[in-house]
Amino acid sequence: MLFRPFKTSDVEPLTLIANDFSIWENVRDHFPHPYRMEDAVRWIDFCNAPEQTTNFAIEYRGQLAGSIGIFLREGNERFTGEIGYWLGKEFRGKGIMQQVIPDFCRYCFQTFGLKRIEAIVFAPNEASKKVLEKSGFQLEAIHKDAYYKCGEIIDGWRYAIFPAVDEFMPDATSSS
Length: 176
Fold this sequence. Notes:
- It is built from six helices and seven strands, in the order βαααβββαβαββα.
- By secondary structure, the protein is α+β, with helices and mostly antiparallel strands.
- Helix 1 packs across helix 3 (37-47).
- The protein is globular.
- It starts with a strand and ends in an 8-residue tail after the last helix.
């Protein structure tokens, strides 16, 4: 598994790799930029709260490489989660996310009983679109002029994935 709980020792590396405009321009605005040490401490404290099981560090060859998490919807959407992730610049192009995303989705389907996982990708983020498609996500919609980022209105691409029947459903061949 390439995702794990955050550790206190992640504060410095998290601060260094997250303080990158190329990350910020592809994530929602609640992600701070510039990214400071106090942001890393606050994030790690939040992620390590006892009830917190939705946000994790991505580790590659013993180094903090990024983060992945899921926002669990409520009410009528309570069986849906929205995945979010980012990877430090020096870790891109190594196939890390193609390993992490399917494992993380399996974890989320099994742990939270979800029936679908969505991902919203800003239109300019071609790398994220490709990794989601390679991970089994399907494009469902393009939200025209739905997001404001970097001083302009942009489209958002909504992808979704569903649990594999043979992985997450009771054995259909067993008798009751």
